[in-house]
Amino acid sequence: MELWKLGGELVPVYTRTILMSCAFRGPETKPCSMLPRSLGSAARRLAAASTRARASSSTPAARRPCPPSHGDDEAGDDESLPTPHRPGPEERRRGEHRRDFSFVTMASRDHSVLTRQLLEFQHDTVDEVGAEHDTLMDLKARFMDFKQRNYVEKFSNYQNLAEQQTPKFMVVACADSRVCPSSILGFQPGEAFTVRNIANLVPPYEHGGSETSAALEFAVNSLQVENVLVVGHSRCGGIQALMSMKDDSTSGSFIKNWVSIGKSARLSTKAAAGNLSFEMQCTHCEKESINSSLLNLLTYPWIEKRVSEGTLNLHGGYYNFIDCTFEKWTLVYREGLEGGSKYAIKNRSTWS
Ligand SMILES: [Zn+2]
């Protein structure tokens, strides 16, 4: 984590957004009340110094939201945009300034300009701590609780994480809101590199690039994780979509095109459990697709190589949120297994 020296006191870099706002905004800038007391005092001194510096400058450029050194192109963008309205206290109380922000956002397709507007908006939000009530205020309260109970308490740990991450797990989980792997398995920041997609599917190497294959490449080759864990779950809507598909149907639906990756699991489910109810077939396929994904992992040459070398383990997991149980198992991959197969399941157990 970067530290800024201020009056003999080191200020962690997570104050940067506020400090940047202080540097580029008007003299009314205030220190962020979200900061711990010791850090807040440093930020207040910086804000005061920044205010004095701006007060000594009367040039309009000194109050621009971003430094003028960003180039001629951006200067041109400034001219094409409406001048951001700076709300007074009464407008802030009524929340009318938000319409100004929306107007400016919609008026511009330039991301750099949007970023500038966002910095200004963040600053306004900081100024209005305790005065706003919107749908994100609950998230703010949770973030502040995380900051006080976790970040501040484990500050040195987060400083180390700011320098590097060395997770031992790569997790592939479903995007379903009920199955957050960090919540159910207790992964802390830095412990699991995670990608979530519809139905927690791993496409085969031949499928080509996807966000899942990119995440695998980074986790396995760069982070050198020791375990890949594919986590499925009960009542998965993605698996229901897969099991509901007509045979060989083509569709413009992104969902159907994605879940068709699991068609081999669907076929084996139909063969093994086709006589059961649709719900029971889906339950079967939820687990079958995990094994299909584990086998697909081995189609990636750099994963197959590390598994063969014994430096990478492949695990399956199934979270049943109906009865709150978790099954886990490990895929064995080597020549000469029983029955002449190269694949086997070991260490299967259920946590209940
Ligand atoms: Zn799901």
Automatic annotation (TrEMBL):
Keywords: Lyase, Metal-binding, Zinc. It holds the Pfam family Pro_CA. Residues 87-100 have a biased composition (Basic and acidic residues). Residues 43-64 have a biased composition (Low complexity). Its EC number is 4.2.1.1. CDD domains: beta_CA_cladeB. It comes from the Eukaryota. Zn(2+) binds at residues 174, 176, 233, 236. It catalyses: hydrogencarbonate + H(+) = CO2 + H2O. Its cofactor is Zn(2+). One of its GO terms (biological process) is carbon utilization. Transmembrane segments: none annotated. One of its GO terms (molecular function) is zinc ion binding. Binds 1 zinc ion per subunit. InterPro entries: Beta_CA_cladeB, Carbonic_anhydrase, Carbonic_anhydrase_CS, Carbonic_anhydrase_sf. It is an enzyme of class 4 (lyase). Reversible hydration of carbon dioxide. Belongs to the beta-class carbonic anhydrase family. This is carbonic anhydrase. It comes from Neurachne alopecuroidea.
